[in-house]
Structure formats: structure tokens, C-alpha cells
Design brief:
This protein is α+β, with helices and mostly antiparallel strands and 171 residues long. It contains three helices and eight strands, in the order E-H-E-E-E-H-E-H-E-E-E. Strands 6-7-5-4-3-2-1-8 form an eight-stranded mixed beta sheet, with helices on both faces. A hairpin with a 2-residue loop joins strand 6 and strand 7. It is globular, with a radius of gyration of 15 Å.
């Protein structure tokens, strides 16, 4: 009997223009083509900011997921545009992407992270330690405002070093 071995999900901050293009390709596939949340593309003013981190998740050589994160102030970070290609959702890329975003924000001085989550994903985020704070309209659709405290979740001696683009964390 042959047993299939799951391939690891590896998350990294996009290191160059080619990886950022892959990041945007996945977001477009999910938020424009699949879900129809945006027309044309989902780019906004945050994408042009120098302090925004565009993260990709790979299974083998394939980029299968993304998340974007950025500081709102010195202590609070926002994670958004979490997207996993429909064909790769069984690969389990969502949780590693969220964990990577949380660890990255914590290692950069964040103590709290916020996200606007589609209602269907609320339980997924709660299982990862996030807390719901009610529903709101975000990007023209209902979302759940969620937070996670970072100070207790990632200690300095446990956090991976994630200061440079291309730094990786396996899922």
C-alpha cells in the first residue's frame, strides 16, 4: 500500500516583483474571478505602501495562497486579502498563512492584529485564536471584525526571524 505524503506549505514575504505578481495573481483569481467581490482587480492604496508585506504560500513550486499585512500604528497590524486558490484549499495553506502573518506582525513590534473576515471563515479564525467583535460592512459585503493579541501568543524567544523579504516559515 502506498501512502500519500502531504507536501509542506511554505510561507514567505514576497522577495521580488515576480513573487508580488504571483501574490496579485492569486488574489485576482479568488476575489475577482471566483468571488466577484471586486471588478477588474482588488488593488488598493495599501498595495502601493512601502510598509505593506505581501506574503505567498507555496506548495512545491506553486504559489497557492496569499495574505497581505501592514501596520496601522506601532502596535496594531492589519491582515487582509487572505486568499487560497480553490484547487489548493485541501493543501491546508490557510492556517500557515494566518500563523505566518501573526508571527511576522509580532516580530515587528505588533501587539495586536485585526482582520475583516468573511462570515464563512469566522470559525476557522477562532480555531487559530482570534476573537470576533461583531459584523460590519467591508468591501461592500458583510464581514466579521476579528482581533488577536500578539504579546502573549508569540514570545521573542519563540518567534522566527522574519525581517527580510524571502524569509520562510513552513506550515
Amino acid at each position: 500500500m502506498t501512502r500519500s505524503v502531504a507536501r509542506p506549505v511554505v510561507c514567505a514575504v514576497a522577495a521580488d516583483a515576480a513573487e508580488r505578481a504571483e501574490h496579485h495573481r492569486v488574489r485576482r483569481a479568488v476575489f475577482v474571478d471566483e468571488q466577484g467581490i471586486f471588478a477588474g482587480d482588488d488593488l488598493d492604496s495599501h498595495d502601493a505602501r512601502d510598509d505593506v508585506l505581501h506574503v505567498v504560500a507555496r506548495v512545491g513550486d506553486d504559489v497557492v495562497g496569499t495574505v497581505r499585512l501592514f501596520p496601522l500604528d506601532g502596535r496594531t497590524w492589519q491582515g487582509d486579502r487572505l486568499a487560497v486558490l480553490g484547487t489548493a484549499r485541501t493543501a491546508g495553506a490557510g492556517a500557515p498563512l494566518v500563523r505566518f502573518a501573526v508571527a511576522t506582525a509580532a516580530t515587528r513590534g505588533g501587539r495586536r492584529m485585526v482582520a475583516h473576515v468573511q462570515p464563512a471563515n469566522q470559525r476557522f479564525f477562532e480555531r487559530l485564536g482570534w476573537t470576533a467583535h461583531g459584523t460590519e460592512d467591508y468591501a461592500g459585503r458583510p464581514h466579521v471584525f476579528m482581533t488577536i493579541e500578539l504579546a502573549d501568543g508569540v514570545r521573542d524567544d519563540q518567534a522566527p526571524v522574519l525581517d527580510e523579504p524571502g524569509t520562510q516559515l513552513g506550515g
